[in-house]
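Posting this for the archive.
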Amino acid sequence: MTALIHVVDDDPSVRTALTRLLKARGYETKGYASAWEFLTAERAPGAGCLILDVSMPGPSGLELHDTLLKNGNPMPVIFLTGHGDIPMTVRAMRNGAVDFLTKPVQRDLLMAAIERALSRGEEERAAQELRQLMRDRYETLTARERAVFARVAEGRLNKQIAAELGTSERTIKAHRAQVMEKLRTRSVAELVRAADLLKPG
């Protein structure tokens, strides 16, 4: 899959220079003159990242990044700025930006940041797919199986779970076996990992 690099910068010369550079390096690119233009454009899901100018008329790059995070958009972001400062950089990096580069950006630094961004995006998409798969499997559990699963994931023994749920240890073992089969896990460690994947956020 060819990665699509989105370039959001209100300076047409910067936008043109970046899109030409990225196309020459084999990337598909699309330019936007403002945060609003990017937010209102139709974007197909897929591999890619966002190269984002910090200071623009209307919503700033940082504000656009905040909006994407609130909307649950996993697209990795690389910031570009002509006059960044330390608080701005710290805010961007704490919010998960891949990098914060100063204009005029060095080509090697930019390309390295893009490679990191695309790699992170791929990892995040794979993780999201795994979480969804586990949620789908979890939906097949009965209420009692969910209760057993939650307690096993917390480290309780079969006899402790049996006492808490008012049933026999043999019954708990049977429920536990069903949980492992439905979630396709082979060990307690994998059950704990499944529980972590099912946590919100």
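The radius of gyration is 23 Å. Strands lie at 4-8, 28-32, 48-53, 77-81, 99-102.
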